[in-house]
């Protein structure tokens, strides 16, 4: 079996998206290094992809810029996090114009499910609040009154499903 060079950037994409999801769960932060890594890997993906063209590359850049500016507008209104905007723009770069709508639709669906999970009592068990005695009622009240959704998990999962799975199907 010959070495397929196009799998190296794809493996990097998978690793970086997984890192973004894990860090968003752990610290509610998506490291800038992950975003930079995704953007630096993309030209190698474009260069090694079997049917990539310069026009497809420019269209992907246009998609990413459009998603970034729309996300920046949402961020300025306090509706989303800055790391989520950057991660979604990087995911749009990899998805390109032909997969951007499935990416956004699946991300919305997964984000909604994640939001329901965060609001559910199961989430308190998952976070460990019910297994130990809280230091006070404010600890649980803070989670219930202002729940935080690690939306990077939904973005990364949708990006992996939409971008990677069709390559292996």
Topology, please?
Blueprint: H1 7-27, H2 32-48, H3 54-76, H4 82-95, H5 100-119, H6 121-127, H7 137-145, H8 152-168
Helix pairs in contact: 1-2, 1-8, 2-4, 3-4, 4-8, 5-8
Can you walk through the features of this model?
With 169 residues, this protein is mostly helical. The chain has a domain of 115 residues. Helix 3 packs antiparallel against helix 4 and helix 4 packs parallel to helix 8. The longest helix is centred in the middle third of the chain and has 23 residues. The chain is globular. About 3% of the residues have low confidence.
Summarize it.
By secondary structure, the protein is mainly alpha-helical. The chain has helices at 7-27, 32-48, 54-76, 82-95, 100-119, 121-127, 137-145, 152-168.
List key phrases describing it:
169 residues; mainly alpha; 8 helices; 76% helix; 0% strand; globular
User: Low-confidence spans: pLDDT under 50, at least 5 residues?
Assistant: 129-133
Order of helices and strands: HHHHHHHH
Helix content: over 70%
What would you report as the Rg, rounded to the nearest angstrom? 18 Å
Number of helices: 8
Structural class: mainly alpha
Mean pLDDT: 86
Q: What is the terminal-to-terminal distance?
A: 18 Å
Task: Work out the strand percent.
Answer: under 5%
Number of strands: 0
Which of globular, elongated, flat, extended, rod-shaped describes the shape?
A: globular
Characterize the main sheet. Answer: none
């Amino acid at each position: 079996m010959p070495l397929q060079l196009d799998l190296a950037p794809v493996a990097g994409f998978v690793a970086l998206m997984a890192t973004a999801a894990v860090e968003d769960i752990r610290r509610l932060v998506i490291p800038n290094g992950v975003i930079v890594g995704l953007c630096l890997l993309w030209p190698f993906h474009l260069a090694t992809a079997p049917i990539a063209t310069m026009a497809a590359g420019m269209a992907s850049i246009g998609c990413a810029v459009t998603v970034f500016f729309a996300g920046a507008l949402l961020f300025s209104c306090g509706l989303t996090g800055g790391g989520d905007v950057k991660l979604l723009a990087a995911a749009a770069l990899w998805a390109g114009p032909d997969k951007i709508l499935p990416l956004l639709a699946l991300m919305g669906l997964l984000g909604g499910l994640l939001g329901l999970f965060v609001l559910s009592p199961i989430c308190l068990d998952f976070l460990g609040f019910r297994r130990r005695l809280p230091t006070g009622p404010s600890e649980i009240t803070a989670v219930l009154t202002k729940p935080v959704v690690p939306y990077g998990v939904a973005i990364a999962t949708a990006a992996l499903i939409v971008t990677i799975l069709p390559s292996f199907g």
